[in-house]
Structure formats: structure tokens, C-alpha cells
Amino acid sequence: MQLELAFFGGSFTALNYDYMVSLLEAAQPFVTGGIIMGIRISTRPDAIDASVLQCLKQYGVTAIELGAQSMLDTVLTANQRGHTAQQVREASALIKTFGFELGLQMMTGLYQDTVQGAKQTAIEIAKCKPDTVRIYPTVIMKHTYLGQLYESGNYHTLSLEETVDLCSELLAFFEQEQIRVIRLGLHSSPELERDRLAGPWHPALRELCESRRYRTAVLQDLEHSFVKGKKIELFIHPKDYSKAVGQKKSNLQFFTSMGYLINIKTNETIQRNRFLLAYAVNEQKGVEVCG
Question: From CA 114, how far away is CA 196, in angstroms rounded?
Fold first, then answer.
């Protein structure tokens, strides 16, 4: 197993320079000894320049993730991010020039953002050609600027249902662009449970979104190919069963409410993340839904 060391949870290159170097030096025995394959850091786009990247390269950093959050300057300003979309573009290009793996992080449901705004952010992020993306739906915490806006009634983020709809589309988009989404949603933590005011947090958010993708793709195929009221068989790979059925069988219940009588069957010959619909021997159709 290949391991990475990660400096996350803040803006690594915005730290005091000597302190940053001391952390990198402490990691060197693990890099040179082959215990870890490289170092991954997260930072701000406005805390990147050529001299910083030369230093990171020297100490074995292999991947850099930028907290872009939005690619709309109006949203960045409203949320007091302190950087611009152009700085994300410039930092991304410089990181790739130096040969680092590039990761970009985006948020949905930010103050003064919209569903369409988040989709535009995804488009602009894809243009930066990152290797990976993380999607974090906004969770509103106590004792924060967004928390104050929420408590004053001036800000309401997306609901869980709206977030699942949006993020399922974002997953499909980034897959189409051949960009890996390595995280969707926040990990659980004592701070999150204690200080969360509002926001679409769920312990299995990605599973919900991937399940929604299945539902959307199957429904589209049903509406074009099948007649309501007929018994339909949905063949999937065994490892995709939970995504196809949906949490608490929500997808099956949805199809029933739409008038489709679906029976899910597993078959190891079906490729992962594909499905086959059939209601007669010679009448069947398959479609890829996710990677």
C-alpha cells in the first residue's frame, strides 16, 4: 500500500515560512526512507508563487489542493474569501507547470450563490484541468460569519434534497471531464455535531448522490423505452445494489410512485456502474450511469 502524508485543515503555504519548512523537514525521513510516496498539502490560491512551489518541490510535496470554493467573484466577495477566481486560475496553472498533482476544492450553497452558480463554478474548475476535485456542501457553524447571517435570517443554504440533486449532477459532470471526485461532503466530527446550525450534512452524502444518479439515468431510459404498468427487470452488478435500490429503498419507492414495477437483479457479468433494463427477451437496453 502506498501512503501519503497530508498537511490539511488550513492553508499550509500561508504559515510562517520557517514553521512550514520545519514541518516539511520533520517529514523528510519518511519520504527518503520510502515509507510514504509523497506529501499532499492544502492551501489558498493567493498563497502560491514560484518560490513557494520550488520549496515544496525540494521537500517532496507531490500534490497541492487549492480551496477555490467558488469561481464567481461575487460569491467569493460575499463570503469574504479574500481571493479572486483569476487567482485560482493562475495558481492552478503554476502548480501544473511545476509538475505537482493539482486538486481543487469547491463548495455548494454558499452565501449569495445559486444552483446555477455552482454549476458554473464546476465548469470553470474543469477548465483548470485539475487531477482531483473535492465537493463540500456548505454547513453553517456557530460563531462564524455565515452563522451570523443565518441567525439574522439573511442566509439560508440549500436543503439536503436540493444538494443531492445538484451534487449528483456535479459528479456526472466531473466524470464526463475525466476528473476524479475524491471527496463529497464533510467527515463527521465532534465539532460538527456540536456547532452545526444548519446545512445539508449527511454521513453518507456521496452514496445518496450516486444513488440519485442511478435513479435519474434509469428514469430517463424508462421514459424513452418502456411502458408503465409492465414488470421490468433492472440488472446491475452486485456491488452496485445499494446505489440502485437507494437508501431505505427510496429509488424503488420512487419508481413505484411513477408507475414502474421494477425488480432488481444482480449479475456479475454487468459492468460496474452500468445497468440493463428488460421486460421482454428481445427488448432491452443498457446505459452507463457513473464511473
Answer: 21
Q: Are 166 and 115 in contact (CB under 8 A)?
A: yes
Q: What angle do helix axes 250-257 and 205-225 make, rounded to 10 degrees?
A: 30
Which pLDDT score, from 0 to 100, does residue 165 have? 96
Cα–Cα distance for residue pair 199/108, rounded to 1 Å: 10
Distances (CA, A) of 18 to 15, 32, 62, 180, 208: 8, 21, 20, 33, 43
* Helix, strand, or coil (residue 39): strand
Q: Tell me, what's the pLDDT at 223?
A: 84
What is the rounded distance in angstroms from the CA atom of residue 3 to the CA atom of residue 11?
Answer: 22
Q: Is the dihedral of CA 224, 228, 232, 236 positive or negative?
A: positive
Residues of the chain below pLDDT 70: 1, 226-227, 280-291
Residue 280: count of CB within 10 angstroms of its CB: 8
CB neighbours of residue 16 within 10 Å: 8
